[in-house]
Design goal:
Elements (H helix, E strand, L loop, with lengths): L2 E6 L7 H13 L4 E6 L13 E5 L10 H14 L4 E4 L4 H5 L2 H4 L5 E5 L2 H4 L7 H10 L3 E4 L2 H10 L5 E3 L22 E5 L8 H12 L6 E5 L5 H13 L6 E4 L4 H10 L2 E3 L14 H8 L4 E4 L4 H4 L6 E4 L4 H12 L2 H17 L2 H17 L2
Parallel strand pairs: 1-2, 1-4, 2-3, 4-5, 5-6, 6-7, 8-9, 8-11, 9-10, 11-12, 12-13
Helix pairs in contact: 1-15, 8-9, 8-13, 11-14
Length: about 375
Amino acid sequence: MKTILLIAKTLSLDDGQGRYAHGLIRELSKKYKLIILSGCLEGAEVLDNSNLEIHKIPDLYVLNSFAGPFIYFFKTLKFYFKADFVHILTDLPYYILFSPAVWFKIKPLFITFHGTYGVEHLEKGWKKNILKAACRKAEKIICVSNFTKNEILKRADLKNLMVINNGVDYHKWQIDYKTAKPSQKIILGVGALKSRKGYHISIPAVAKAKEKYPDLKYYIVGNQGDKNYFQKLKNLIKQNQLENNVIFLEKIFDKDLILLYYQTDLFLLTSVNIGSKFEGFGLVYLEAGACGKPVIGAYGCGAEDAIRDNYNGLLVPQNDIEKTAEAILKILDNQNLAEKMGENGRQRAQEMDWSNLIKEYIKTYSSSVFQK
């Protein structure tokens, strides 16, 4: 059995990269022995498999100490020579730049690029050229969306890019939901409260939809760490008289999130690009689809890979409050359309289940490593 060294930013299920790591680990462990190194082990307890070996490494999201990169390097080096190849599951630059897999290039290397964190460092700062050189040493740079791939190509002439979209654990989101649905319309958004998630666009759009559906509720679930942006959203809510309509939630369990998905009428997350910050894919669109819900996202970001316009949801121009409001009403006004898009969303989520996508990873590993 081949051994893979996997390096992850986090294993937390509250984080998009953590969910990605969980999905990949769960499927790869059926075929390979895995050595997993992560800067955050929260969530590791649910990874129960005899083929797994999990270890803590320094969190290199930022360089908080001079010693951190060296501890990371030498701790990783200990496991590097036990593996047949290495897959770095994060595009945070320090996890790449200080990896023995880059410095020695004895073992085949794969790197996943999600979006903002890696791409922005390809165009600015001292890391720019070093990161490009490190990426050229990889067998493949796996991009989670075509948009991420194209953004990389704008900044670096890399010949080893490929796209494998994010996967979803379809069966996790299937429940026997028999509770009576609330009478008022419910809209749901899931994602950290940061400007690129576009809540400053969706909130005024919801205000327009409220004119027809005065009792509607808009749940926004996500980390509230950006206090300035959170306050901006609160001000918007007050300006639009939505105090009784918008509900913020944070740190809820997946079982509660699933119930919220099933109660909602549509999922709304109209991300916006701000400089080099953008939505790399949008796993939440697939999760909503797995629950049978229509989704609304924005053109010009990774959401285009998750949403097929007029199939499992609607795509609207970025920063367009009017078009977003029109899309909301198009779905809320037409129950047949909403149900059709929801069923298509289920089919799309089944297509994107990790049990299917893992075949692309195995094929990529095999063609790049084992057939040489």
